[in-house]
């Protein structure tokens, strides 16, 4: 008797990490695309953290992620992405290894108003070497303030790391960034 496999049993899921510096828009990115209410560990920023958390470029920021953000999106009938947003401050980086464990790929979200803060996140994934990643410039106010070639040079990105843009508030932009990430990760898989 031959058995058949239903389409539902062929559904795939993948873990995606959304990383970057403090205040770059990771929580907003996850919330813009998630089909479920985002499980967020946003907390009010304590006054004691003020010297460590530079909010000069993030006007009005009063909360911060202290563990992770979690969301889910079905890309199509056969693929569901589980999104894990990292906390941005270095004092929470001890969580990154756990959040990255088992990830198919990652997006490093960057803010051109504070590019230097992006280097540690990029270096983290370069050092690991086992998680394909793309770099996405968050279009704050919907504006690209620097040409992508300038951003690539400033971040010293290798040519093999895709660099794109997205407004983290815009569902379509976030969806396109995730699609580009999946394409990049799949292109790096060994062919059989």
Automatic annotation (TrEMBL):
Gene3D superfamilies: P-loop containing nucleotide triphosphate hydrolases. It comes from the Bacteria. Keywords: GTP-binding, Hydrolase, Nucleotide-binding. It holds the Pfam family ATP_bind_1. GO terms for molecular function: GTP binding; hydrolase activity. InterPro entries: Gliding_Motility_GTPase (IPR052705), Gpn (IPR004130), P-loop_NTPase (IPR027417). PANTHER family: ATP/GTP-BINDING PROTEIN-RELATED, GLIDING MOTILITY PROTEIN MGLA. Belongs to the GPN-loop GTPase family. This is ATP/GTP-binding protein. It comes from Actinocrinis puniceicyclus.
């Amino acid at each position: 008797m031959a058995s058949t496999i239903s389409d539902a049993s062929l559904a795939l899921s993948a873990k995606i990490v959304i990383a970057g510096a403090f205040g770059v828009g990771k929580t907003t990115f996850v919330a813009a695309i998630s089909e479920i209410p985002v499980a967020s560990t946003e907390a009010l920023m304590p006054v004691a953290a003020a010297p460590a958390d530079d909010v000069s470029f993030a006007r009005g920021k009063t909360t911060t992620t202290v563990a992770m953000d979690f969301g889910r999106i079905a890309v199509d009938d056969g693929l569901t992405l589980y999104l894990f947003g990292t906390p941005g401050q270095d004092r929470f980086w001890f969580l990154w290894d756990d959040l990255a464990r088992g990830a198919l790929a990652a997006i490093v979200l960057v803010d051109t108003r504070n590019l230097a803060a992006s280097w540690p996140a990029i270096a983290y994934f370069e050092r690991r070497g086992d998680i394909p990643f793309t770099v996405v410039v968050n279009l704050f106010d919907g504006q690209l303030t620097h040409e992508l070639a300038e951003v690539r040079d400033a971040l010293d990105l290798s040519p093999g790391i895709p660099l794109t843009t997205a407004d983290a508030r815009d569902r379509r932009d976030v969806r396109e960034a995730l699609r580009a990430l999946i394409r990049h990760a799949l292109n790096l898989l060994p062919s059989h």
